[in-house]
Amino acid sequence: MENKxxxxxxxxxKKAIVKTSIIGIVTNVFLAAFxxxxxIVSNSIAVTLDAVNNLSxxxxxxxxxxxxxxxxxxxxxxxxxxxxxxxxxxxxIVAAIVLYAGITSMVESVKKMFFxxxxxxxxISLIIISVAIIVKLILGQYVxxxxxxxxxxxxxxxxxxxxxxxxxxxxxxxxxxxxxxxGISLETYVGVIxxxxxxxxxxxxxxxxxxxxxxxxxxxxxxxxxxxxxxxxPEVRGAYDLIMFNYGPNKNYASIHIELPDTMTADDIDKLxxxxxxxxxxxxxVILTGVxxxxxxxxxxxxxxxxxxxxxxxxxxxxxxxxxxxxxDTENKTxxxxxxxxxxxxSTEALQILKKEVQDLYPDYSLHIIADIDV
Length: 375
What we know:
The chain is 65% helix and 15% strand. It is of the alpha/beta class. It folds into 2 domains: 2-214, Up-down Bundle (Alpha-lytic protease prodomain-like); 220-373, Alpha-Beta Plaits (2-Layer Sandwich), CATH 3.30.70. It has a 3-stranded mixed β-sheet, covered by helices on one side. A 3-stranded mixed β-sheet has the order 4-5-6, with helices on one face. Strand 5, helix 10 and strand 6 (366-373) form a beta-alpha-beta unit. The chain is elongated. The two termini are 32 Å apart.
């Protein structure tokens, strides 16, 4: 039943992305045609570059459609977790298209600086540019909203680019009005500014996509929500070490450790972890692929005293962000816990310091300390 739900959600998402992209393609092709005619007739480099930018937007939408269709392919033996990450590649291609459009625009603008041509605007051209601004604002808001709704980086990028285009067109309109009123030609300068802004947008889109591919820190709010849902279970004293694995938009897997009383049986733990896995998937759509267990002492007063001392010692270091998973066996003289180490210190060095300090306090105990990374 859950698998069917995932497939239905994926199919709906793909359909929405394709529909939104087709609307973007049609709109941008019409705008590009109108602007190209205006740019050629009025001899305006800024308007012509704006038309080229609309064509690049249409091409971006085509790439988004291809990425959505390929990314929605079902898992198989070769790719058991699906093809979702292809969408990140499509986002990168969109960013490359935007970047190329910006560089091309810059080259043409610089050429016009050395070989200027007088622009000749008509009332019709100004009206069409004004309409284009309104259309781009509406299109940008719509595409960006759909991108956020369906978690599509490519759509969000296209929507942001469309809103940016509205600003670009507004600057072209402003330069045309200034030329008609005061006879001051800002064509080439506006073209350069437009080019710089397009290049900047392309670079930022590229960086965002690369970060998605490399893997980013889990969203703090999302991580907190998942942990709080788990800690609602009466047996769970704490949830730690949440690591998210992303295999494309809406395809998130995770592993986590939970702290449970040392009196629970394997059967109790099995029932609990299955219940937690179902709960997290239902509430967040995240699939827990692994639930590790820390046990804590429930009836040993000496263990509680040792924990307080160790916790005070370990957390006295600014580079220790948290201590968890503490368990001590006073009879067999063993002790274990995890410490989250910040990136301000080498984890190996930090571990050596902690082991020495704890060993000095309890020389008779065998220690097992793990240095967790700050995820």
